[in-house]
Amino acid sequence: MSAIIHGAGAATALSTFNSVDSKKLVAPSRTNLPVRTQKYIVARSDASKKNIGSGLRVRHSQKLIANAVATKEAETSASTGHELLLFEALQEGLEEEMDRDPHVCVMGEDVGHYGGSYKVTKGLADKFGDLRVLDTPICENAFTGMGIGAAMTGLRPVIEGMNMGFLLLAFNQISNNCGMLHYTSGGQFTIPVVIRGPGGVGRQLGAEHSQRLESYFQSIPGIQMVACSTPYNAKGLMKAAIRSENPVILFEHVLLYNLKEKIPDEEYICNLEEAEMVRPGEHITILTYSRMRYHVMQAAKTLVNKGYDPEVIDIRSLKPFDLYTIGNSVKKTHRVLIVEECMRTGGIGASLTAAINENFHDYLDAPVMCLSSQDVPTPYAGTLEEWTVVQPAQIVTAVEQLCK
Amino acid sequence: MALSRLSSRSNSFLKPVTTALPYAIRRHVSTDTSPITIETAVPFTPHQCEAPSRSVETSSEEILSFFRDMARMRRMEIAADSLYKAKLIRGFCHLYDGQEALAVGMEAAITKKDAIITSYRDHCTFIGRGGKLVDAFSELMGRKTGCSHGKGGSMHFYKKDASFYGGHGIVGAQIPLGCGIAFAQKYNKDEAVTFAMYGDGAANQGQLFEALNIAALWDLPAILVCENNHYGMGTATWRSAKSPAYFKRGDYVPGLKVDGMDALAVKQACKFAKEHALKNGPFILEMDTYRYHGHSMSDPGSTYRTRDEVSGVRQVRDPIERVRKLLLSHDIATEKELKDMEKEIRKEVDDAVAQAKESPVPDASELFTNMYVKDCGVESFGADRKELKVTLA
Fold first, then answer.
1. Set A75, A97, A109, A209: catalytic member
2. From the UniProt record, which GO molecular function terms apply (chain A) (predicted)?
3. What ipTM was assigned to the predicted interfaces of this complex?
């Protein structure tokens, strides 16, 4: 395994990482930390927390920690963190960024006085005022367009769709203006906008409120998409998304808002283009994101009892895919199972399958299998809804089949 | 003497109210900035507000600059027409000739800090904001030296340093963007306004009313300008709008209907709207104007209107002719001087076209530039990180 930084990448100086100027703080990424990868990979294969902790953690309070790995041990071995729910983590991230940069503002339906329909923006209107936390009328097309127009001048709006499904009304603005303006203006305008909201299949919310928009947005050139799944990465991704100069769509999940986890007290951000290694393993690579991560981990317990050793990766970055992490995993295990909540047709899993087959075909011992939701509108009845999404039992069966 | 001859054959358009000098003394092509007051031919029609005065303060320098700028824009559009027919400009090309008074009158009333955003009929607005002819032609022909480096095309002209936000292909989508820019101006306390321009076709878009509602709620300094050229591509206004009084459609938002072929009326209206918007929130301007070409170069423009109609407007309401008559009647310039000016401008445009024709096309690597802003390492590597598949920056 010779993971050498490509020449172009090595040129970017380490100085950006060590810079104390808070405006220029950049999450150490592949391109500016030549030494990092070595520690990263070694740490994962023997799951030693010490390496993870000491390798990446930076003491200075102004420096950032970019730590994609969120194993429980890493958290508790660090200085005392604080426990909170996922929606509180999102709120913390948002509040910190609004404190840090006066250009950040939030707009959406009921984000201000009401405190947000999922309480992500609770308390922000009282703290920052009506001009920075804006209650909009119900017109997604217009207020998404307004957020993009404001971003063209240099503001950094965080646009909330009360449910991701409602953003379909703003598809034109997101696709044509948000994604394309940087390109069609020849680089004159940047759109540092964050579009976020909860999506996914909830508890009997009905077809129109259970949509997974990542499959519709994935082809739009010019945007980045990330999906958060734990309080740790929710806060980290929210902060990274706000600081990014590119338009980022942050997918949250309705059922994950009440997850509790201990997160560090220090400031940290997560890298937007990196996947998270949830559980290292040897037999099979399971790629997942958002809520399905928990179904996969549940299935993993059963699988471990049955003697399998699955490697679970939360891909997090839906656009672009972190082919580096995924590729290295495929090289090791030679089998891939994708578990996602998108529809079968044209979903994230479909693109990921194509990407893996194209790039890592030689390393595969079995065809890439993709478990996705059924191509149906989500029914209301609880039993039917359960069968629309992938359940842990199906994951176990799929792994057994692939590892035969 | 010259004046009396002109006034005998002039129609009701011109009523020079005051001039400082006696008729006998001729002013040569002058850069005199002493004020002249001219009355607009057509009164303003207000909605929920008091109409501004019909007497417009201007100067001979300004009227001359109107003539020069409009002649330049007109020549540019005609040159674009020939280039399109010569297949040097491809795709869609929407020409603005006939509507030049709008671009020029608006510029006279505002500063470069005020923002303008418009739709795909943006060539002349770009020039009005200070864009160079050669940048415009290069972009139309898809060259590297174009204002968007050849990647935008006719419908995507932008000029950030002059607060010109484009250049948008989807009808009506620029209106929420414009209100967003106005929001940012209010957020940053810029004391500037945004002119969000759209056509009579876009006036029926829902997002216009959504954005107008928010702009009125939040008191944004947004001025919505409806360039009513009476045809939404092939559909006349009476066939597409139940209420073609676009300036009234704002309901609670005050509006003004303006003769869009009169650069001075446009200037007065924009000045008035700017003052209003800075204090009281959004305003709607409806500019009654006309386009001589069809909707775009693929539309002959004669299937839904008669040639007589087009030539009739050209004879009676042409914006450049109107300014020419003004210049002549006020003795600011002679016929010959104006003709010489037009010749110069024609040469200027031809030179710009020639220069643009010589410019290089973008390199293949430009396909991937300006996709993402280089941030947090947006690169896509193959396995092993040895092979850099593509740098998405």
1. A209
2. metal ion binding; pyruvate dehydrogenase (acetyl-transferring) activity
3. 0.83
